[in-house]
Amino acid sequence: MLDVRRLRLLRELAHRGTIVAVADALAFTPSAVSQQLGVLEREAGVPLLERTGRSVTLTPAGEHLVRHAEAVLERLEQATAELAAARHGPAGPLRIGAFPTATRAIVPAALAILATRHPALEPMVSEIDPAAVADALRAGDLDVALVHEYDFVPAPAAPGIATAPLCGEVTYLASADSGDTTTTDDLRVLRRRRHSPWITATPGTLCHTMTVRACQAAGFQPRIRHRIDDFTTVLALVAAGQGVALVPQLGIVDPPADVHLTRLPIHRRTRIAHRRGAAIHPAVAAITDALRAAVPDHLIAD
Q1: pLDDT band at residue 14, thresholds of 50, 70 and 90?
Q2: Integer Cα distance of 265 and 246 in angstroms
Q3: Which of 145, 155, 220, 294 can bridge 97 by disulfide, Cβ–Cβ 3.0-4.6 Å?
């Protein structure tokens, strides 16, 4: 009989790529991970890993077993959710991840709703970039999270993770002069900024990738001067004449008077993410309902 805990380690190795990364994520030592994977290979009766020096890759049999592991872990998550629903209503710790603008604009109102409807829940919020959410959910560090995607940066399907739509918002070009119109239906307005310095988020984030790809779609590579993740700081730098930037609607709060905003045909969509099979868990269902009730009226309903 295959041990589900060892199947989880194999699944994480398939997604994270190294034994050290699996050990860090799941609070094991690398030697313990290696030992458990060795036991799994003996249980399976066929080689699951191919070791070359320090690198480890999955054999075809290992990859096939990971696909089965995904299905098994989803069913176990669903069973856990059904048992929780049978035992009691939403109660206990609930670990929520969210990106900064959602943490400010949506999460506080959702927590207030949650406190009224389900006072036995103990929500704990952590800010996290959407790119790191799938790993955190699979590792059990989070129960639910808000993620986003842009028109130019669609989110790839993450194994073991399910998402549901929450809301959408538009994106603006922020500049320190009024040379642009207040709205546009195409990206030609970006091309007029091809010689301007640009302010983007830090590399590796979806916001950074969105800016680069939008500029490329307009026919140029942006000349990046500053890399800032906080949109309030981005707008302050724009007002100081340090460059132009693309800012989603939720990132625009009391912008400086010197900042001019041009609405663009670029949208950002926010989704609710959780482990596959967990949608009916009372706590996950409760925070999902609260988040939907907390979406500001000026955002695009999904």
Answers
A1: confident
A2: 12
A3: 145
